[in-house]
Amino acid sequence: MCTVVVAIGCSPAWPILIAANRDEKRDRPARPPGHHWPSQPDVLGGLDVLAGGTWLALNGHNVVACVLNRSGTLGPQAGKRSRGELPLLALQQPTASRAASLLAGQNGEDWRSFNMIVADHFGAYCVRGTGHAMIDVKALGNGMHMVTAHDANDTASPRVARHLPLFRNSPVPNPPDWGAWPDLLADARPPVDAAINVTSIAGFGTVSSALVALSADRVPEYWVADLPGAGNFGRVQSA
User: Fold this and answer.
1) Tens digits of residue pLDDT in 116-133
2) In terms of CATH, what superfamily is 3-235?
3) CA 87 to CA 83: how far, in whole Å?
4) What is the pTM of this model?
5) Rounded to the nearest 5°, which phi and psi values hold at 162?
6) Tell me: the pLDDT tens digits for 49-78?
7) Which of 57, 75, 135, 216 has the greatest CB tally within 10 Å of its CB?
8) CA separation, residue 189 to residues 162, 186, 229 (Å)
């Protein structure tokens, strides 16, 4: 189960701020953010070597897309397409709204169930595929939102119940100063189902973190870390 936090309209300088932890099998091969897809040379993101897709990336129009598994659906399934294709599909579009519309027209049965966040400086959308119906899309309003393997802001998720208030009550970052967010992403306090940084499950855990800021008139801030926590993040260069 991964985690994405998105702040919409909370900062006048950065209309969209995103914090994300990727939880995955530790032996699943990956490459750090780069331009890995010749057919989409403007897309910048981490590469899932096994299936060729990505979990989080942005394109040359400053649209960001990231995908998460829903509960009980870790790993591939025979007859289903890789969910790592979904951000690449979204990033064919020049705006988040057009990406959301494209995804809403897809048959959710093609993939195991998933959640997605698609955003640009105009706003953000939560995209949900249940694995047995058409994909549905919901525009997110201003404020702080958290998505895990549950629906957005669902406090039935112990991770959301613990951490969404912490993000909401922390000062809004002003990148390149990310404030408290790197430390919040590093919180590994038990129990494990409430930890945002999973360290105690054999063979599975939090394998990387990302921070993204979008604005209409600034170059995006895109930072990544192999281990969550302040001092571990580095800015991703676009070229």
Assistant:
1) 999 999 999 999 988 777
2) Penicillin V Acylase; Chain A (3.60.60.10)
3) 8
4) 0.95
5) -80, -45
6) 999 999 999 999 999 999 998 866 565 666
7) 57
8) 10, 9, 13
